[in-house]
Amino acid sequence: MSPTGENGPLFDLVVRGGRVVDPVTGRLGRFDVAIAGGVVADIAPAIPGDLATGVVDAKGALVVPGLVDLHTHIFSPGTFWGVDPGPTAWRSGVTTWVDAGSAGAYNLGALHRLCGSFPPLTTRAFVNISSIGLVAETGEGRRDDLCDAGLAVDAIEQNADFVVGVKCRLDRAVVGEMGIVPLQRAIEAAAAGGLPVMAHIGTGPPDIDEVLDRLRPGDIVTHCYTGQGMALLDRSGGPRASVVRARERGVLFDVGHGAGGFSFAVAERMLASGHVPDVISSDLHQRSVLGPAFDLPTCMSKFLALGMSLEEVVQAATVNPARAIGQASLAAPLAIGGRADVAVFEVEVGDFALYDTYMEQRKVDRLLVNRATVAGGVLLPPVAAAPPACWIPSTDRQDDVLHRDAGELRRPWATLLTHPNDFVHLPLVGPPI
Ligand SMILES: [Zn+2]
Fold it and tell me: How far apart are CA 116 and CA 239, in angstroms?
């Protein structure tokens, strides 16, 4: 048999020379990954490049399963926060995008249909307990009639292959006089569907202890390192007793970086107390994609700087989010027959500055920079950054980035946006702690 097989190349693509870190199978070490027909066709220490139509040079790089971003907003156009995943997916390694409540019962069908246009990316969604979802910036939980658990259950049933949980934002601006009621309704709907609740925390009321004590095993707290009034710290600077209780009974903690919900100071204290996040997610949306969240690998780099190991941050962005929504198969194994979702990263070593959502800077010495992203066996081509929606302010520096060629944008943010004045700070209700 000729090296290319009797009917042409054996493989569509070979990812060659990389260091595999696969928390799904536990495989670690130098392996080549061959892809054919959208699945992993072979994985071995050396697979000749001439057996494939295309080769991804991963020499010296990290090769991991395609990332699963548990908290994103991809309902664009149609909502205040939504972004198109295309301009970020190809340069971030994120192959599974979970929308966190952009749509409620009234517009879930539209989001579901929109996500059908994103192949080869995999998409899932939390349905918002408010029937209108995140059409507007905030306030979706203020009206009793919009927080209709029965309607949410109907929407879940009609989109059963798409919905993975129920989202509820618990924040003074979101719920107003409704207080804890939206959470009660979200739990009611989630329980009927056998799904988790994802609870957003920010500036209370509601009271953080009341929220945490109501969450069930498997429910998810997002923005878990918020520096706002619902922060997980007590007065002594350690985790609140309600946090310890929640963790003990199996409540999960998700980073959800975003534009208002990530404080280095809070994360440092929580990690020093042994509170490592279960899931690292970006909360990618209109106000975070131009910084300081940027994308999931940049968020993961912040947790490398906070002391988590490379293996731990990869696990928190692949296996853990997939399990959190009861769909372990979304973290695709780097093994024969596995869906070919593969992310290749450079671990750049240097002196970099990254910011939290309060414009507090930390120096980091390692940065995860994506080199290639393969989704469903397809090597994703460069896609130019999208300009923000007309209601989103941007700085001159951010506008400069938007005019760059897509090919230059693999690590645009780290090189071009390096000062707090390069970002638009999200105005929040109440001061950060
Ligand atoms: Zn969000």
Answer: 41
What are the b/e assignments for 35-63, b being 16+ CB within 10 Å? bbebbbbbbeeebebebbeebbebeebbb
Structure confidence at residue 3 (pLDDT): 47
Label the pairing between strands 67-72 and 342-355.
unpaired
Ligand 1 mean position to 82 CA, how many Å?
10
Instruction: For the chain, give the longest Cα–Cα distance.
Output: 74
pLDDT at residue 1, rounded to an integer: 35
Q: By three-state DSSP, how is residue 378 classified? A: strand
Residue 83: domain span? 66-330
In this prediction, the residues of the chain whose per-residue pLDDT falls under 50 are 1-3
Tell me if 394 is assigned to some domain.
no
Tokens of 123: 């998409």
Which residues have CB atoms below 5 A from the ion given as ligand 1?
100, 283
Distance 109 CA to ligand 1 centre (A): 19
pLDDT at 417: 86
User: Can you give the pTM of this predicted structure?
Assistant: 0.96
Ligand 1 geometric centre to CA of 158 (Å): 23
Compute the C-alpha angle 228/229/234, nearest 5°.
110
Number of domain units in the chain = 1
- Is residue 171 within 8 Å of residue 201, measured between CB atoms? yes
Question: Closest by alpha carbon to 299, among 283, 322, 321, 315?
Answer: 283
pLDDT at residue 431, rounded to an integer: 56
Residues contacting residue 149 through CB under 8 Å, at least 6 positions apart: 129, 185, 186, 188, 189, 192
Cis peptide before 77 (omega within 30 of 0): yes
Q: How far apart are CA 159 and CA 251, in angstroms?
A: 25
Query: What's the CATH number where 142 sits?
Result: 3.20.20.140
In a domain, 423, yes or no: no
Task: Return the closest-CA partner of residue 63 out of 47, 76, 87, 79.
Answer: 47
How far, in Å, from the CA of 148 to the mean position of ligand 1? 20
The amino acid present at 10, given as its one-letter code, is L
Q: How far is the CA of 101 from the centre of ligand 1 (A)?
A: 7
**Alpha carbon of 246 to ligand 1 centroid (Å):** 21
